[in-house]
Specification:
Helices cover about 50% and strands about 0% of the residues. The protein is mainly alpha-helical. The structure holds calcium ion (2 copies).
């Protein structure tokens, strides 16, 4: 299932949707997305250069600089993906 659906760019992600997205890709269940998990998320959505994109998105959205995307930072991540690549999560 493609959840970074480019056809629904006008929709604004809701809090529950962000949480759902996080849980979907949080493979080790620590409640946050690592670069590896982010890379997998992009790759499974069919994006090229998923590793590079994951790094870009992480660097942009990781506000507290811990190297992970938390639930609070998901909004920024999704916004970044939308603005940069026209992808949206919902
Ligand atoms: Ca995780
Ligand atoms: Ca963070």
């Amino acid at each position: 299932m493609a959840i970074w659906n480019p056809k629904s760019v006008n929709l604004r992600p809701k809090k529950e949707q962000l949480k759902d997205l996080l849980e979907r890709y949080d493979k080790n269940g620590d409640g946050r997305l690592s670069w590896k998990e982010l890379r997998e998320a992009f790759r499974s959505s069919g994006l090229n250069f998923s590793g590079w994109r994951a790094w870009q998105a992480l660097r942009h959205a990781d506000e507290n600089g811990d190297g992970y995307i938390s639930e609070e930072e998901m909004g920024k991540l999704v916004k970044f993906a939308k603005n940069q690549w026209g992808f949206t999560a919902c």
